[in-house]
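dumping this here so i dont lose it
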């Protein structure tokens, strides 16, 4: 709760030299990098939506809801008080309020309700980012619901009632038949105990139900199934000799419970407001999407779109951490100076700001490529979302840690949001394809999709001539890509492509202070480096001005 006029004159001392409260603030309009990119790539329609969202989620009330939803994590409710089976999860009221708010702002369906709008997928990604600053866990079901639509569209005769309740739907939590609901949320269950990345190791089997069109029963389990209170799940099981994709409703059309059993919920490092379950299918009823044995093609459409959400979530975590660091160092003095005026701290914050500026530029460019009007962009989207996911999500824990240290000891204490942000920071690298798997995916695309390589080359060529370090790094990457890079070089290729894409975007769109310092620090062969090591001639004041200091 916001505290009215906390006392600063205490019996033994005065409370001084502490920064002002973080909230309320508009989490979008105070973010120069994101706002500029959104205005450039999408325009006013999205700017005004984000402005409204930024004010709401930056309010003291919503920031507090985010804390509560994580302080009081979900509880497993396997049975009701009479011993009847439920397989449900109970959430704190703050979680429900946050879910309702996110759906009210259409984070789950913006590109589908605005199918013609330029930058509609940037809309999903950027709104998810801004919301994540207040609360990250709820964005898992919101992102999966958004991403389910392209996969559901493979089989509209089965899924239209679901699509109709996702697009334009509001949050309607209690489980019941979807025809009675004002909106539905969706999950995705692929990972099994014996194999996660390698989905072909799945052991779950599907058996056709006699006389039922596309109707099957599933037998098996899933080792991770987040948001288990979703109304439906897309899942993989073997049928017809290969993996097939199925829609599994929690409640069957006749109103009875489907036999999807929740075995337990995971005790996780972070992401605590969101429940992640282990589930079993006991003759669970399911409906086939697409052809038997072609399930990976269907679910990959969902995975592709969830990857965009991992970029939004990463931006949100970065932004909140950076903004908290800036707030602290602007309000606290040490050794006779405000921290932000100490040369070393200026370098650290400026370097973190560069990292954030580059992350925004890349994520927004990838979001733009998700608008499929243009064939080159469609090709770029598949490659660039993997490149961006690889780099941004893997850099996140180090970034948040450095922001945390800017707050000193207070940043390590649970009253501050920094421990929660830190615990949240590794997850986006793990789910939707872990680092190595993403690197392998990138190599596969390079080998099999020359149109994606062409689109990437065009994007990189647009930055050429703007910076000497950039031109040299681009030559090195071209040499590397001219032969098929071997598997063991996968991470190196992914990293180089990400840095060059970021630099190319900054050279074209960011102020020189940002682009020059980014190229000077990220593209050379400086080797291992920590944040805060900028060249002597870096325009630190120019970089910091964009952070409001
Ligand atoms: C909080 C949370 C929520 C989740 N929610 C869901 C969910 O809702 N639905 C769902 O289906 N899954 C979910 N997952 C599971 C997640 O997607 C998997 O954990 C992830 O895909 C990795 O699979 P795995 O755990 O089986 O690891 P493995 O596949 O065993 O991989 C272990 C490591 O080996 C690496 N690796 C794999 N193959 C190779 C290779 N060929 N070469 C080099 N390295 C390799 C991986 O990159 C990884 O680092 C969730 C996970 C977490 C932590």
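and the seq i came up w/
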């Amino acid at each position: 709760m916001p505290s009215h006029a906390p006392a600063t004159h205490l019996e033994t001392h005065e409370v001084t030299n502490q920064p002002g409260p973080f909230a309320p603030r508009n989490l979008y309009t105070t973010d120069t990098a994101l706002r500029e990119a959104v205005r450039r790539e999408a325009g006013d329609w999205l700017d005004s939506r984000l402005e409204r969202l930024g004010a709401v989620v930056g309010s003291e009330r919503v920031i507090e809801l985010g804390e509560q939803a994580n302080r009081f994590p979900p509880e497993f409710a396997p049975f009701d008080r009479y011993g009847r089976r439920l397989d449900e999860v109970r959430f704190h009221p703050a979680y429900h309020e946050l879910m309702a708010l996110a759906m009210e702002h259409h984070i789950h369906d913006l590109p589908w309700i605005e199918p013609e709008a330029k930058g509609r997928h940037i809309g999903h990604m950027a709104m998810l980012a801004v919301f994540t600053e207040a609360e990250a866990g709820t964005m898992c079901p919101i992102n999966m619901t958004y991403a389910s639509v392209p996969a559901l569209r493979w089989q509209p005769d089965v899924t239209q009632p679901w699509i109709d309740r996702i697009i334009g739907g509001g949050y309607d939590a209690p489980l019941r038949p979807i025809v009675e609901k004002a909106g539905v949320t969706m999950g995705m269950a692929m990972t099994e105990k014996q194999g996660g990345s390698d989905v072909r190791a799945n052991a779950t089997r599907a058996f056709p139900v006699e006389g039922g069109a596309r109707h099957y029963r599933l037998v098996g389990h899933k080792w991770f199934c987040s948001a288990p209170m979703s109304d439906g799940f897309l899942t993989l099981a073997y049928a017809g000799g290969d993996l097939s994709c199925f829609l599994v409703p929690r409640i069957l059309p006749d109103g009875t419970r489907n036999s999807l059993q929740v075995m337990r919920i995971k005790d996780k490092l972070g992401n605590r407001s969101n429940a992640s379950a282990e589930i079993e299918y006991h003759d669970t009823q399911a409906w086939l999407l697409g052809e038997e044995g072609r399930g990976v093609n269907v679910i990959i459409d969902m995975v592709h779109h969830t990857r965009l959400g991992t970029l939004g979530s990463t931006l949100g975590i970065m932004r909140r951490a950076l903004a908290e660091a800036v707030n602290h160092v602007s309000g606290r003095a040490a050794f006779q100076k405000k921290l932000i005026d100490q040369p070393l701290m200026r370098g650290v914050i400026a370097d973190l700001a560069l990292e954030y500026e580059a992350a925004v530029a890349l994520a927004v460019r990838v979001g733009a490529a998700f608008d499929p009007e243009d064939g080159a962009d469609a090709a770029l989207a598949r490659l660039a979302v993997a490149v961006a996911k690889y780099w941004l999500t893997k850099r996140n824990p180090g970034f948040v840690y450095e922001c945390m240290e800017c707050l000193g000891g207070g940043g390590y204490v649970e009253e501050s949001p920094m421990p929660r942000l830190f615990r949240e920071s590794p997850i986006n690298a793990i789910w939707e394809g872990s680092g190595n798997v993403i690197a392998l995916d990138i190599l596969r695309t390079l080998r099999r999709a020359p149109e994606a390589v062409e689109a990437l080359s065009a994007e990189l060529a647009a930055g050429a001539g703007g910076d000497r370090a950039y031109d040299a790094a681009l030559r090195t990457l071209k040499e590397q890509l001219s032969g098929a890079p071997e598997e063991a070089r996968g991470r190196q290729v992914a990293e180089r492509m990400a840095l060059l894409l970021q630099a190319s975007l900054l050279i074209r769109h960011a102020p020189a202070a940002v682009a020059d310092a980014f190229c000077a620090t990220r593209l050379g062969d400086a080797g291992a480096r920590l944040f805060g090591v900028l060249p002597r001639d870096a325009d630190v004041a120019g970089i910091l001005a964009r952070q409001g200091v």
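Residues 161 and 179 are 7 Å apart (CA to CA).
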